[in-house]
Write a structure and sequence with these properties.
The complex is a heterodimer of chains A (355) and B (263). Chain A has 355 residues and is of the alpha+beta class. In chain A, 24% of the residues lie in helices and 34% in strands. Chain A has two domains: 228 residues, P-loop containing nucleotide triphosphate hydrolases (Rossmann fold); 118 residues, OB fold (Dihydrolipoamide Acetyltransferase, E2P) (Beta Barrel). Classes of the chains: A alpha+beta (355), B mainly alpha (263).
């Protein structure tokens, strides 16, 4: 049975539905990411699991126990806050011990657990420091240690890396994965950063406007987005909007912005005449200066951004549609601004979206 | 500058003349601490000072309790019915002239005494009167500090298994401690300073220090009063400075806590 079962949970703030009939199930030991733009309701969902906000409807079941009506202090769930929320008038050791004290744990066991937690987050020796004497990264570690100290069944992390600078963020991401594997506690991370979600999580749920847009493994989310929103929000994407029409013995898309037909992946089975979009990742795009055999779009290079490992080429079609292609290495060797190119992609790399 | 001169020159003179050896208040007769000695031997002033301190301590403590409740109600209970009226009533004693406050409280105490036979006017009535307006000052400070208090701290404590009363005792009250200390000190100082309200609501038995000074000045200013005023000034200055320092230190701390970067 799943560790966390959420069934039809909703929460309204005034006239807006922050969370709208969300159902979700998280397996024991998972590293689960809740991904969405700010204001999509992901933090509200997290706060309802923690018991800090009361849902208007639905059920939350943790490890077989219905916790929907339980106050936060009676739930086997702990949370790491985005602001860390370290108690400023307590030192590091007392911050970490706070939750254990509430359980009336024996003093010696508390000391041992605090030491263990500090070692886990590599903060041994900082017991007597106050939060304001720590750097941002150190505070983040203490907050993690405090939330883990009670060994909850489920750990909720609200934007755990958002307050760190870029370099530290990449490092801490790896550490979080390591810590999760060592303690074996189920993690539920809320993030707006798709790179973070894809790289850390074993499963990802994408939220939009209070609803679940898609759930799946990071690869499924990236390779097989279920809707235009997911395709556009997760990673870079070229989207061709149009109408399904009959092409050469197969279905094609009359793309409005191109003014011509675009072939769909072979085996696409959809009724003719419906509206749909074809999504193609920039790294699937192939640019060449000679017209390739088969389908290709004529375009002109409008900008080249060198990103280190590769380059993002922006190019404009004859009808003025802006497209992106990602090519490995420094593209400026063989491409220049204003150059005429032909863009194409392997047909099976496209994804047809109807939602 | 001229304004400050008008304000502080007399005070500086008063302090200087408290060390005057001469019996005449206006003639400099050389340096001497003799009036401080005389002051300590003056039993009327001594008893009045003791009364004042007792009243001030009790009034400040009562102010702290009432003001903290009021501050929490204003900062935390959302839009309860009558919130606006309650907020205005909390500020009113800070604006209403002391004479009116004193007179109205006197009428209340007289009525109470004739109906219930209690309280007889004296230290208790002064203390209650001082607590009414002291509580308002405390509530303003507590409310302001609660407004800047990070609710996530309370949520984190709840999340870690603390019950609401534990959260209040272990997280919220320690968090607003500077406002509580400053509020107590402010209420204490105000009570110590007050002449008008105390004169209204006192009975025959209780004389506070400002009342004793005022009645002695009416018989002619003695250099002893200068010495007393200097000591009072020093005490009030220290208390107010302490209250200010506590608030400033808290403000600095708050600025060094992490800010969440907007996303």
């Amino acid at each position: 049975m799943a560790l966390l079962e959420i069934a039809g949970i909703s929460k309204r703030f005034g006239a807006t539905a922050a969370v709208d009939d969300v159902s979700l199930s998280i397996e024991r030991g998972a590293f689960y990411a809740l991904l969405g733009p700010s204001g999509c309701g992901k933090t509200t969902l997290l706060r309802m699991i923690a018991g800090l906000d009361a849902p208007d409807g639905g059920r939350i079941v943790v490890d077989g126990t219905d916790v929907t009506r339980l106050p936060p202090y009676e739930r086997p769930v702990n949370m790491m806050f985005q602001s860390y929320a370290l108690f400023p008038h307590m030192d590091v050791a007392r911050n970490i011990a706070f939750g254990l004290r509430q359980e009336r744990m024996d003093g010696r066991r508390i000391a041992a657990r605090v030491e263990e937690m500090l070692a886990l987050v590599q903060m041994a020796g900082y017991e007597r420091r106050r939060p304001h004497q720590l750097s941002g990264g150190q505070r983040q570690r203490v907050a993690l240690a405090r939330a883990l100290a009670k060994l909850p069944k489920l750990l909720l992390l609200d934007e755990p890396l958002a307050a760190l600078d870029r370099r530290l963020r990449a490092e801490t991401r790896l550490e979080l994965i390591g810590i999760q594997q060592r303690v074996g506690i189920t993690f539920l991370v809320v993030t707006h950063d798709q790179e973070e979600a894809l790289s850390m999580a074993s499963r990802v749920a994408v939220m939009n406007r209070g609803r679940l847009a898609q759930t799946g493994t990071p690869a499924e989310i990236y390779e097989r987005p279920a809707s235009r929103f997911v395709a556009d929000f997760v990673g870079e994407m070229n989207l061709f909007e149009g109408e399904l029409t009959a092409g050469f013995n197969c279905l094609a898309l009359a793309a409005r912005s191109l003014g011509r037909q675009v072939p769909l992946p072979p085996g696409t089975k959809l009724p003719e005449g419906g509206a749909a979009a074809l999504a193609v990742r920039p790294e699937k795009m192939v640019l060449s200066d000679v017209r390739p055999a088969g389908f290709a779009i004529a375009a002109a290079v409008s900008s080249i951004s060198y990103l280190g490992g590769g380059s993002m080429i922006h190019f404009t079609t004859e009808r003025g549609m802006l497209l992106k292609a990602y090519v490995p290495g420094a593209a400026s060797d063989h491409l220049r601004r204003g150059m005429a190119v032909w863009a194409s992609w392997p047909l099976e790399a496209g994804v047809v979206l109807t939602q | 500058m001229l304004g400050f001169g008008f304000l502080y020159a007399p005070i500086v003179l008063l302090v200087l003349y408290s060390f005057n050896a001469s019996r005449l208040v206006t003639v400099w007769g050389g340096f001497s601490p003799r009036w401080y000695g005389a002051l300590f031997r003056n039993e009327a002033f001594g008893a009045a000072a003791l009364t004042s301190l007792e009243v001030a301590a009790a009034a400040a403590t009562l102010s702290l309790v009432l003001g903290t409740f009021a501050g929490f109600s204003m900062a935390r209970f959302g839009r309860f019915p009558g919130r606006l009226v309650f907020g205005f009533l909390l500020l009113a004693p800070l604006i209403v002239p002391e004479v009116i406050l004193g007179l109205s409280l006197l009428l209340l105490f007289v009525a109470c005494q004739s109906w219930f036979g209690w309280p007889s006017r004296g230290m208790l009535t002064i203390m209650v009167a001082h607590a009414t307006f002291g509580g308002c000052f405390v509530s303003v400070l507590v409310r302001a500090q609660l407004a800047g208090f990070d609710r996530a701290l309370e949520e984190a404590a709840l999340d870690l298994g603390a019950r609401p009363w534990t959260v209040l005792a272990r997280i919220t009250l320690p968090g607003i401690r500077p406002a509580l200390l400053a509020g107590w000190l402010l209420a204490f100082t105000l009570s110590l300073d007050d002449l008008v309200i105390a004169s209204f609501v006192t009975g025959p038995a209780a004389t506070t220090l400002p009342m004793a000074v005022f009645s002695s000045v009416r018989l002619g200013v003695s250099p002893e009063v200068n010495a007393l005023a200097t000591m009072f000034l020093a005490a009030v200055f220290v208390l107010v400075a302490l209250a200010g320092w506590l608030m400033a230190r808290q403000e600095r701390r708050r600025q060094t806590t992490p800010r969440i970067r907007p996303i």
